[in-house]
Prior knowledge:
By secondary structure, the protein is an alpha/beta fold. It has helices at 11-40, 46-58, 63-77, 83-101, 108-120, 126-139, 144-161, 166-179, 184-200, 205-225, 230-240, 384-400, 408-417, 422-442, 447-462, 464-470, 565-568, 587-590, 595-609; strands at residues 245-246, 249-255, 260-271, 276-280, 288-289, 292-296, 313-320, 330-335, 340-341, 347-348, 353-358, 364-365, 476-477, 482-483, 487-489, 509-511, 531-533, 553-555, 579-582, 613-616.
Amino acid sequence: MHGRRRVKPSAEVEKLRKEKEATKIKEYNDLVASCFEKRDKNEFDNDAFTITTKILSQNPDFYTIWNFRRSILLYGILKECSEQDKQQTLSTELGFLQELFQLNPKSYWIFNHRRWCLEEIPNPDWNMELKLIGKFLEMDARNFHAWDYRRYVTFQLSSTTKTSLTQTEFDFTTTKINQNFSNYSAWHQRSKLMPRLIKEQNLDEQEKETLVNKEFELVKAAFYTDPDDQSAWLYHWWLVGREIQHISLLGAYYNPKMRQVVLAFDDEIGMVIPFQVTKKIDDNSPSSYIEGMWRPAGGELKHDQLNIDRSYGFVWIFTFFDSVKDDFTELIVTVKPEFIVPSHSEVKLTRTMQRHCIINDNYNLENESSSSLSQSQDTLPIDTSERIKLLQREISMVRELLELEPDTNLLRELKYISGTNMEENSKIDDEVVTICDHLIKIDKLRTKRFEDLRSKAIFESATKSLVKLVSKELAYNDDTLQYQDSTFSLESKNLTIIPTPSILLYITKLNLSNNKLTSIQFLANLINLKEIDVSNNCITSISGVNRLRNLRYLKIQNNYIKNWEEVKNGFIGWQGVECNIYISENPLIENTNEIESLKIGWENEIKECGDQLKIIWK
C-alpha cells in the first residue's frame, strides 16, 4: 500500500519464489516439447488441442502454437463433424479468445485467429463482433489492433447485409476524436472513410466543399487543444493532399564517339528489366532492337543484358555491342513502369515513356511533357486548382492562427502542384530556406534533416534554368565531338547534399566550394564534367570519379581526408586521361612529419591507377 515501507523478502521466501518459478518454467517447457512432438507426428487429436490451450493461456503470442491449433481443428476436430457441431466448436473457440484478450488486448495473433474462426464458422455473428470491438475501444480508444479489426468486421457486415456502414463509422470516429484529439487511429480511420463517403453519397462540389471545411474546423479545434500533438497534424497533412510525384526522363542523347545512349532521370532509380533501345534506318523501314549493355553512371558493365547491376542511378548508360552497325538515322528509347524501381515510395512512374535521339542532329533531345498528375490512392477527390487554394489557405492559417512557421511540407506541396509559376516557386524556396535556418538553430536533434531540406530548396531554385537545358539541343562541336564548355557555380550555399545531380549532366565546369558536402559520390552521374571544385567542404574520401573520362581538374583542398587510401581508392580503374588532383590542406598531409618522402610514394601509387593522374600539393 502507499505510504508503507517496502520490506525486502527474506532469503527463505525468495528461495521458495524461485523454486516455484522454476517449476512453472519446467512445466511450460514440457508442454511445448509435447506439443512439438505431436505436431511432428501429425497427431491432430483432443490431447494435442488441450496442450495448445494450456500453452496459449500462458503465452498468447506463440504464433507457432496457433498455427498447430488451426491444423488440429481443420484436420482433426472439425474434419468430419456436422454443421451444427462445427458452429458449436468454433463458438467455444471464440469464447476462449475473449478470455485471452484479457491477458493481451493488443495481441496480433489472437485477432488473427479470431478472423480465421469467423471465416470458418457456418453462421458468424458480425453484429456481435461489432459490439465486442466497440467495448475494446471503450477500454482503449487508441488500440490500433482493435481499429484494424473493426475495419475488417464492418467490411464483412456490409458485405453480408448489403448495406453501407460508412456514415455510421464516420460518426463513430467523430465521437472518438471528440473524446480525445490525440487518437491517431481514429484520425487514420477517418481518412479511409471520407473518400468513400463522398463517393457513396455522390456529393456535388458545394456539398463536398462544405464537408471538407468541417473537417478543417475539427482539425483546428485539435490544434487549439494541443498544438504539439502529431495526430491532428498528420490528418491535416492528409486533408490538404499529397500527390505522388512522377518520375520524369529529363533527357536522352546519343554519344556517337562512345556509341552510347545516355538517359537522365529526375530520381535515382534501379533497373529491373532493361530499357528497350530500337533503331530506324530510314523513314520507311521498321524499328529493330539494338543489342547492348546498361549500367548506371559509375556502375559496373554487365556482359549479359538480363543481368542488370542492381545499384541505383540518376543517369543510365547503354553501350552498343561491337556488332551493331552505325546505319541508323533514329534511335528510340522506351521506359515502362515495370522496368524500374524508384528510390522511395513517394515517387513512381505511371506510364510508358519514349524518347527519340535524332542522329542527324547529333545530340538533339526531344523531351515529352510529363503526364498529368493523378490523385494518389485514398486522397480527397479535389482538382488541382482547388487544392492550390486550399494549401494557400491552410498555410495562412498556420501562420496567423497558431503564430507558427508553416510546415515546409505544405510549402513544397504547393510548389509542386502549382505548375510553372517561377516567381511564386522562388518565393516558396526562399521561405523554406528561412524556416530551415530557424529550425536548425532550435532543433539540434534534427539538424541534418533540416540542412538537407534547406539544401534541396536552394538547389532547386538555383538550377531551375538547367532543367530545360537537359531536354533541349546541346551546344556541340561537330569537329571535336565534345561539348562546348558550360560553367555553373553553387559556391558558398551551405549545401549538405546535391539532391538531383542529373540536372547538372551537361555542366563541364562546376564550382561547389565552401559548402558542407560530406560525399562526392554524386559526381559519378556527371559524365561530361571537366573541372570540379569541391574545396572547403566536409568530404572524407574521393569517390565517384574514376569513370569521368573528361575530368581534368579535381580540386578537393581543405576537406576531411585523413588517409591516403581514401584518395587512391577513388581512382582505381581510372578511365580518363590527364587529370590534376589538388589535395592540400587535408589531414592526411598535416598529420605526418615525413610528408616529403610520403609524397613521392603516393605519386607513384596514383600512377598505378592511371599514368596521367597527377597530384598537386599546392
